[in-house]
Amino acid sequence: MSTTAVPDVAVAPVDQGFWTRHRKTGAVLLALGLLATVLFGALATGQQARFTLSETEGGAALEINGTVGAILFGVVTLLAGGALLAGMPKRRFTLVLGVGLLAFVLSFLCWQVSAAPEGRNFMPLVNVVRGTFVLALPLIFGALAGVLCERSGVVNVAIEGQLLMGAFSGALFGSLSGSVWVGLVAAAVGGAFISLLLAVFAIRYLVDQVVMGIVLNLLAVGVTGFLYERLMQPNAERYNSAPRFANWEIPLLKDIPLIGPALFRGNIFLYLGLLLVLVIHIALFRTRWGLRTRSVGEHPTAADTLGVRVLRLRYRNVIMAGVVAGIGGASYTLALYTFTKNMIGGKGFIALAALIFGRWSPTGALLAALFFGFADQLATYLGAIGSAIPSQFLAMLPYLATILAVAGLVGRVRAPAADGKPYVKG
Amino acid sequence: MEPGEIHALLGENGAGKSTLMNVLYGLYQPDEGEILVDGRPLRLSGPSDAIAAGIGMVHQHFMLVPVFTVAENIMLGAEQVRGGIAGFLDRRRARREVAEVSERYHLRVDPDAIIEDLPVGIQQRVEIVKALTRDVDLLILDEPTAVLTPQETEELLTVMRSLKAAGKSIVFITHKLGEVKAVADRITVIRRGRTVGTASPEASRDELAALMVGRSVRLTVDKQPATPGKPILEVAGLVVDDDRQCRAVDGVELTVRAGEVLGVAGVQGNGQTELIEAIMGLRPALAGSVTLDGEQINGWSTKRVLRAGVGYVPEDRSVDGLVKEFSVAENLVLDIYDRPPFGKGLALRPDAIAKSAQERIAQFDVRTPSADAAVGTLSGGNQQKVIVARELSRPLKLFIAAQPTRGVDVGSIEFIHSRVIRERDIGTAVMVVSSELDEVIGLADRIAVMYRGRIIGIVGPDTPREEIGLLMAGITPDGAGMTPTGDTPASAPESPGNEDKE
To answer: Do B165 and B46 lie in a common domain?
Structure first.
């Protein structure tokens, strides 16, 4: 009997419609490009928009005529949008989208900088880059804490609380001992303490992980707020005057133009944060620990049948997450500010968004955190040059971007399959 | 167990086969008793002890991480690492190991393929390779053929024989008699957690079945030839996606007539679930139409579909069919609780509900301590009878039963089957979806075989199993046997209607 096999490729008789996700994105980009070309182009002045490679007005700079720049970059965005709308090959999607969005931002900047009053119509790129990293740093630590937790299957909504507890205990023990290192260790322990609570209740007692995370955030705000008012405020000299890490300049690297002054004259937290991204990324995808962590986050039963100790691994990862977030909290109190009540102010939740935006990968989270940091920094900068756009409006943009991102702009976001599901044997 | 032996563990669903093997694999702890290996008692505190003792297991639900590659899944838990404490994975060595083992036992797998892209048969092969790389002497296969096509099953049996030749012992857990007879050297039958007998493969099917259920059973369904009436359900060009936005139903054409049973056969996961859910309004149809008795019903809410005279037994009774915490009586009126006589205004009428529950319980032989007992405390068979009772208590035009007897004891299977046939005989259109080919063959008047989201053939129930098996594997006999839907005589007599049922 002769037989015919049914072809493997499913022929989809359904009309997909013209408006695929890529095309919709292209249309949005096209609209942005139009906005940039017409509006930014019209509003920009003929003055030179200067992007200086230093912290001041002087020195080498990238220059472009404001109107020309705004229109030129606007057209680039238009082209990118058009390319997506015309049906680009799928693998180029991210690249084209990135170029389009970047050009839109540049067009916007050409307008803003050229329209700024005389004497302020320049953008010091060193400051912008440095500011971006400084503002992104707590997000980086927070998102890494999220990666460690959630890759092993425990949802970490308590990042905010971990950061806050780290900041608080860093400040307190740093002040008491007069040593930054003691403060750093105390911050790590503080973050780990919140994590331990999360781990015990989520893993041992199977409490809903999201609820538990929120409760822990409230607990951290309450405890640190109480101690701040009772202890730190009356006697700030003794309890809230932690020493700070000095900036360390890295030889050779610090002399690279732009990058050098912006990144390699920073404090220990900046270096540690970037190093951790690298280390965790490699560990997650190339080591035994990483393989086991991911397997436990995806299919704990399978891991268990192969002799991986699921619960122990989860405990370990959740507590490590607390250590990382605690250190992130200390990047405030042991380098920048004295402790104040609720000083994290929601950054832990933005870190959570960065984690999702970055698709649960350390490097993705880094990029997302930098994106949020840049938006933050831009708001500050535009305020400083007296932009017509209210800074509150700009401060809102990152959150808007997060909603779009989570809603599927960055492709289908797929959380670890067992994320948030407690593991019970049998 | 002896070395180089295939020992079949035969028993009904829920007889305790899997539990026993999970104890043997260290996943569950025994309450009493001990396990002897080479005469020495063995204490297993976890699967790693079992692996160390040379025991490997292929679970009924595969223990593979879907987003990992084959090599990653195989090395998990026994990773070869470099770099001391850092523990970098030695992927090259893992890949080589996979290649070696698959070479030695002729189990071809691609170490770099991602598990979720592989067909079920290959995934199972990965599971076997995974166990073999751990140097096991005893391999436990828990219901390995449940998800395979007959051809894949045949292949698996060949693999089992070659493993046996290589000196491995195999415990083969199943409730399918044919496979047992084909490969087993020794058969142990388990019923309700006890060994009820051992047999040799020469024993007849009937003997084995009798041992399994404790009495002789009819393996066939008694029924008269069908008298199909007018088409009740017509599905045309239906396209549905699954939860992962992958195409699950890909242009299905189907007709079910009044007074006939259409069986839908196919290996699990070929779109049957999504097809049914789309008909029931539980899942959006992307294209195509569903017509019930001349009325287009796609886009309707599930409630409206049910009220239009469709009865539905969902495939997973504990998730979709029942509210486990609710009582039997409450579950019996889940579909019509808001209609008289059970509901009046905003209030329920408990007396009417209780009265009707008593009737249904008697009528459908539901074994429950009382109508107020939580449905979750009943056995699987009785839970299923509650669903069937509920669905058949309405006047129906169409009755859809998905996996109606999965995890149900033999006695209840007979009862449910007879009810399905009785429903057919009063002129309801019936659609039975089952991954048990025997069930489909036994019940159906026509069999539609589903493969990769399409109906690739519609055949009569007297078609040889082998041919249906080939269809389930996606292989159609050239030209012959392909009966497109809807070309049966259009001048069918008017159906007797459903009114006469009550």
So the answer is: yes
- pLDDT of residue B10 exceeding 90, the answer is no
Tokens at residue A149, please?
Answer: 């937790």
Write out pLDDT tens, residues A285-299. 999 999 999 999 999
- Best residue in A6, A16, A282, A425 for a mutation probing chain B (most B CBs within 10 Å): A6
- The DSSP H or E segment spanning A217 is helix A209-227
Residue range B198-245, pLDDT digits in tens: 877 777 766 776 676 655 455 567 788 888 889 999 999 999 988 767
Residue A6 lies in a domain: no
- Same structural domain, A75 and A154: no
Q: β-strands B88-89, B81-82: how paired?
A: antiparallel
Q: What is the pTM of this model?
A: 0.77
Contact B75 A6 (CB under 8 A): no
Q: Do A104 and A248 belong together in one domain?
A: no
Chain A residues inside the 8 Å CB shell of B247: 10, 12, 14
Whole-number Å distance between alpha carbons of B167 and B186: 16
Which residue range(s) make up the domain with B118?
A: 6-213
Q: Is residue A425 part of a domain?
A: no
Check if A302 contacts B (Cβ < 8 Å): yes
Domain count, chain A: 2
Neighbours of B57 (CB within 10 A): 27
**First-to-last CA distance in chain A?**
48
Q: Rounded to a whole number, what is the distance in Å from the CA of B6 to chain A's nearest CA?
A: 23
User: Tokens 């909290």 belong to which residue?
Assistant: A329
Find the helix or strand (DSSP H, E) in which A399 lies: helix A391-404
Contact status of A20 with chain B (Cβ, < 8 Å): no
Minimal-distance CA residue of chain B relative to A17: B286
Distance from A41 to chain B by nearest Cα, in Å? 42
Please give the backbone phi and psi of residue B194, each rounded to the nearest 5 degrees, phi first. -125, 150
Instruction: Tell me: do A233 and A377 sit in the same domain.
Output: yes
Across the interface, whether the CB atoms of B250 and A298 are under 8 A apart is answered no
B75 with B165, same domain: the answer is yes
Domain match, B374 and B410 both: no
Average pLDDT over residues A109-132: 86
ipTM of this model? 0.82
The residues near B81 (Cβ < 8 Å, ≥ 6 apart) are A287, A288, B87, B88, B89, B90
Task: Point out the domain boundary residue: B378, B393, B408.
Answer: B393
Interface mutation vs chain A, best among B28, B76, B124, most A CBs within 10 Å: B76
> Containing domain of residue A178, as a range?
126-409
Is A233 in CB contact (< 8 Å) with chain B? no
Residue A328: its pLDDT value, please?
96
